[in-house]
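Thread: Malonate decarboxylase acyl carrier protein, structure

OP (GT): Posting the sequence first so everyone is looking at the same thing. Length is 105 residues per the record. Can we get the structure tokens written out before standup tomorrow? I want them in the notebook alongside the other entries.
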Amino acid sequence: MENLHFQRPAHTGVKRRALVGYVGSGDLEVMIEPCTTAQADIHILTSSPSSETRWRQVLERIEAVQPFPAMRMDIHDFAATPGVIRLRIEQALELALQDQEVSHG
């Protein structure tokens, strides 16, 4: 397992915690929590060795469309494809920015 950590500047914060996917699904779990800092703090635990470049590229593509809010994001990856990664992160961000707390599996 490889641990990756990315930090991005952020100006607004998430409103709620969010959970999308689950470890047993065989692909990816994304958890988001509000934070008080002005940055997106992204922690990734991945089973894919030497995947930092792939993760950096996926995060940059998401950020180009939707700047990251201030948050802590924890991701547990079990060799998900870039398309699944992006989908799960976007789902989690959508939930975290809503006014009521929800989780999806």
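GT: Both are above now. Quick notes for whoever picks this up: The two ends are 23 Å apart (CA to CA). The beta strands are 2-9, 18-21, 28-33, 39-46, 71-77, 102-104.
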